[in-house]
């Protein structure tokens, strides 16, 4: 196969370039392509370009900024199949899911094109002879660091909100999907003035150079908690505002009285969609003992039917398998999967474990793979207590026929999003505000526009005479 970077006319790296990023196909282990990584001088130039463009872009009418987003969304829609194919080659994401992610990204750009021009401030009641205003203004230069598991949809959300509110941007996609990220940049950049949107490929060192720059005003990061903590430390030195969505350890609570087959279908969707590589994937399951066995039987059957699923790379597969083997060594029982295949690529079987204990890493840490650890509980109170005993705070799902238990759950669980009877339910445009180790600040929705602007209070009154 010809190097994908060469095919797409992206900055390719030579095979012997020590700074190049090599991507292997998770499905069969073949080399997809090699991307040239940005150097420190490239980062400095990109940040300087964004800083130079910020004043003019901030003064650009909101309707004109929105027009740029609409044109960018149209360009993404025109290349939906190319973006989806590249995403599949780099990360193993199923083609239909990759395509849906690209279309979601285009729709998000269009959404912010509508919301941006009507993002408004407030007037305050004061003296009758004076005027008091609260005016939202762009914050300046925004660093956007995006993940590999849904690279187009996530990037378009953060980029769209930042650009339509008058900020300039330096974007670094994950080093696990640089072809996808740079292709997206090639499609978006031409629809904005020079310097407004800058895209760089690179690993963690490039991210550190960006986030440590004193000219960065906001850092928006979706990715691991470890990286999020490093970003927060860097921002404490520079004074940049930080928006973080850093994964979770989302519980699924299965109450007595629900249909175990339906509950197993919900659990399988939550644990195995995109090979479990979703920020709000189901990471741990608490099932009432009254329906534990039929639930486990149905969930195991679904896992067996799915079989092998692609994980993004060998390093990630090793981490997932380590969580599983640690749990088995500590007494968990494998019901499905859990065995490394002897095939090329980085495939891993849909895995179900029963007999899981709260102390297991599988229950305490984010696994981010196609693994469904199940813990049998005596009652809903135990499920609620154990589900809430966690350092993350992203999301949770509750399956119940009891309105009382549903109310108790959403009030008790200290997470940003609680879903009742739909593992991936939610209205379009809804914002999410992660808590604790899962991050801080709103992601998506109209509220993201507030995060990416600063409020200026203005008091106007006439001079004497």
TrEMBL record:
**GO MF terms, alphabetically ordered:** oxidoreductase activity, acting on the aldehyde or oxo group of donors, NAD or NADP as acceptor
Cited CDD domains: ALDH
Cross-referenced SUPFAM superfamilies: ALDH-like
**Pfam families cross-referenced by the UniProt entry:** Aldedh
> Any idea where the Aldehyde dehydrogenase domain is?
21-458
PROSITE patterns, per this entry?
ALDEHYDE_DEHYDR_CYS
Listed A to Z, the keywords are: Oxidoreductase
User: Source organism's superkingdom?
Assistant: Bacteria
Q: Does the keyword Ribosomal protein apply?
A: no
Which protein, by its recorded name, is this? NAD-dependent aldehyde dehydrogenase
